[in-house]
Amino acid sequence: MASEIHPILCIGCPSGCGGEVVVEDGKVTEMRGFTCDKGKAYAAEEVVAPRRMVTTTVRVRGGGLPLLPVVSEQPVPKDRVLDCVSQLRAVELTAPIAAGDVVVPDLLGLGIRFVASRSIGAAGEGYPL
Amino acid sequence: MHEPYYDVVTIGGGPAGMAAALGAREAGADKVLILERDRELGGILQQCIHNGFGLRRFQAELTGPGYAHRYIEMVEKAGIDVWLDTTVLATAPGGAVSCVSPTGGPQTVRAGAVVYAMGCRERTRGAIRIPGSRPAGVFTAGAAQRMVNMEGYLPGHDVVIIGSGDIGLIMARRMTLEGARVRAVFEIMPYSNGLTRNIVQCLNDFSIPLYLSHSVVAVHGHDRVTGVTVAQVDSHFAPVPGTEFELPCDCVLLSVGLIPENELTRSAGIHMDSVTGGAVVDQFRQTSAQGFFAAGNVLHVHDLVDWVSREAETAGQSAARFAHGALGGTGGALAVSAGAGVRTVVPQRLVPPTGDEKSVRFYFRATQPLQPAILALHADDNVVWQRRLRVVKPSEMVVADIQVATLFQGAENLTFTISPATE
Amino acid sequence: MGGTEAWSVPPRADVVVIGGGIVGAAIARELSRYQLSVVVLEKAPDVAAGTSKANSGILHAGFDAEPGSWKARLNVRGSQIYAQIAEDLGIPRRVIGSLVVAQNADEMVTLEALRQRGISNGVVGLAIWDRDQVLAHEPHVSPEIAGALWAPSAAVVCPFLATAGFAENAVRNGVQIVTECPVTAVETEAGAVVAVMTPRGRIETRHVVNAAGVFSGHVSRMAGDDSFSITPRKGEYILFDKAVSHLANSVLFPTPDKISKGILVSPTVHGNIFIGPNASPVEDPEDQETTPEGLAAIVAGAQRIVPDLPVQAAITEFAGLRAVAGKDFVIGPSPMVKGLVHAAGIQSPGLTSAPAIAEVIVESLRDTGLVLRPRPEFNPTNPKRPKFIEQPVDVQAALIAENPLYGRVICRCETITEAEIVAAIRAPGGARTLDGVKRRVRPGCGRCQGGFCGPRVTAILARELGIAVTEVRKDSAGSRLFFPRSQGAVGENEHA
Description:
The structure holds three protein chains of three kinds.
Chain A: E1 4-9, E2 18-24, E3 27-32, H1 37-48, E4 51-52, E5 55-61, E6 67-72, E7 76-77, H2 81-89, E8 92-94, E9 102-104, E10 114-116
Chain B: E1 5-11, H1 15-26, E2 32-35, E3 51-53, E4 62-63, H2 64-77, E5 81-83, E6 87-92, E7 96-101, E8 105-116, E9 120-122, H3 125-128, E10 138-140, H4 141-151, E11 153-154, E12 158-162, H5 166-177, E13 181-186, H6 196-203, E14 210-211, E15 214-220, E16 227-232, E17 245-248, E18 251-254, E19 258-260, H7 263-267, E20 292-294, H8 305-323, E21 334-338, E22 342-346, E23 349-350, E24 359-366, E25 373-379, E26 382-389, E27 398-403, H9 404-407, E28 413-420
Parallel strand pairs in B: 1-2, 1-8, 2-5, 8-20, 10-18, 12-13, 12-18, 13-14, 21-28
Antiparallel strand pairs in B: 3-4, 6-7, 7-8, 9-19, 15-16, 16-17, 21-23, 22-24, 24-27, 25-26, 25-28
Chain C: H1 3-6, E1 15-18, H2 22-31, E2 38-41, E3 58-59, H3 70-89, E4 93-95, E5 98-102, H4 105-121, E6 127-130, H5 131-137, E7 147-151, E8 155-157, H6 159-172, E9 176-178, E10 185-189, E11 192-198, E12 201-204, E13 208-210, H7 216-222, E14 231-240, E15 251-254, E16 264-267, E17 273-276, E18 280-281, H8 292-305, E19 314-324, E20 330-333, E21 340-344, H9 350-367, H10 393-402, E22 409-411, E23 416-417, H11 418-426, H12 434-441, H13 454-465, E24 483-484
Helix pairs in contact in C: 2-6, 2-9, 3-9, 11-12, 11-13
């Protein structure tokens, strides 16, 4: 099987580096141009099994705010991102909530926890928005 | 009327205001106050629910609210006073800060030093003059982000994004995840104005096309937006006849740049930099008005909150030193200019070093993309420092620390340039 | 005003005024002095939705119009009575004078002709200034100019607030203004008006005032009068940031051509400056689109007067339509239908003339048989609404003590408090939409154009009107701003 060359732009940090990954028979055989180990690790994974961190919001009852931002503790397989967001849309919590509280312990059997990005106190502050 | 005194007052409780307040506290300021107009601390971070914040500051990949949360906890622990729902109306020489709130009424706070940390606002449709009708459904990306992420409402279901600024890219992904269709992003420049990582994970991941050198030349619709006309532009940004095409949509989001919010600074008569849109400051972030400092997006628009925090910490520490009489005024400054290839440089002035600091940190933006490039410092006519940069983009701030000994060699003018380097 | 009231029309009225622009509102307010039942029908969601909201906002001195024309007589009369009206109705107004700038000796000749015409029209204080006098008053005007005609009585107002001021006072004095209520038919019997039809019901009446702006020809033909028709003529404008308001101290006109007064540079009453309008005939009476060509033309025109105009300081642009019937206004009883009175074809100087038009129309109605008995309880004034930021600190403290919402600034650019926004919504004939709030108290008119305050004003509107955020509109019925966030799975939406 012929080798494939995948140009990859790294999302590991804001520097925006990139390079090429050479894949032969489904295996990475060569990496060109990446500037750090983290970038190489990202690129190797990106060509075989890409993953993304997922952030979205869930509804909150009785809180000072109607929505709680949540984040995955680990990256999720890229092709399951939409499924995760879709599932989380049906979740509703009750205030108060503390930053780091587990919102869903294992979403879609991926073994990944979703946690609260911030705290939300009980309703009471009278700000219009 | 009783006028409370604080050593340092920060105007704004976003990332810059909180970091400045903490910096002031660390540098020995006893009484520190944050004035925040919103219902909570955190500023724009609270609506930036995506991750990618804090890699430098906390060596962790945090969400915007997560980054804000860490700072809010530090502010609480440090015993810093916070007045929420409070708007500052004016600042006056000598450190009088006039503010207003529903519970406190109009009040004047006396400050030993003031840090401006009001952040920035988004450029609007009017500022870029898109012709056409004025229907509902045209929003700045940040306003839409607040509605979606904090209030739970959608600005539309079929979206066109004008401008490739980071908030626009982030909203392209957000709207897609919320079930909307995002047709395309149109950027008038021949290069993107957002971070590469956002192009990859916000557009490429969802097959959302990015059209460079394209401009929306008309918005259509009477009640609600029904579509836009797009055209390719030439090197003078004029639409190329015959390249127009129409795209239906019910929502247009604008991500066409950010402008430092300097009403207070300007009305205080402080010297401004017309390119950054912020005040002219020295390495301590002191403005042309003694005892008034500025940091974060109110000074120059950053792309990383980590740098905002660092810069604001410096401003807060300096403010505390000023309040205690340990930092001088604004005299005897050496001008720092942006030369060829450099659009902005901060700080724009250097005052004689106080003895503690080893180096000065400079922030630059380039005028055009280069790969690779040389960033050079010219003292009068001599190059006294240079660094090779692998890649330079106008959208990504360049940061460099330069030794005090290099900067203060008796030159009258310091100028930075960015020029192409050979491979 | 309760919701049901706003959504129904009365079965009969002494007078039906069609159109809630500056002319209709001024006529309604004039009629409210008398013991009459008066209904104003407006097809848009708010008053001043057409020509009245997008024009130059200038109270002209009155030297342009042909002596003896309606325009000349009503302009000068309007200009004279506005001071008292603005005071009574709380309409912001600034007398700043105007200069008609001549670029050369030929145009100086035209200026002298204008001056003579102004004198015949009864305009006082006109003077020809030489170049140095002009530059002393207006340092940013092109040094190439030859001179100018100075008219000290010219003033600026906010045309929307002028209309809203008349409308509010009319409502306070018993007039019913029904918005989103287009007229579908004007019924006649034996050549006389008997009723007006709307989607919300029929109103029996013997007196109809046609103040329908660009639609006034259409309304006239509905009643069977085809004595005139309207050609909408579009004018585009650009509004600039307050940071550049030093560029003009008075209204700066070019020397006029035959079609219009030309592209001018002028301060607004709120302290911005604007440039415009151009003049292009359009087919569609709803066409309020700005065009690249139009905007380029007004920039070029304005730069002939003020060469250093910084285009990047623009904060918004907009377009409005003039209702052109011919050279003059169409004022007075219909020549074909009894009971129909026209206040039509009102283009510039319509804003200035409106209160004088109202006087003439009321006399017309008297002549056509309407009995006018003064109403002793008529109150000519609207209550004053303090602008928080303009008050001294002790007044600010008192305002907040009475109403804490004065202490919450919603609009950063213009420093407008929540209390002012709430008052604009709760006023008689008050704001129902985001644009309605914006036009009354100006959040969203500053340089951020609502980027920060828009979502907050939306929430305040929802709370005050008792509706969902998703029901709040920008303006017209189809202009809702936000949609509910989907709660189902993503796949259930149409996904690219």
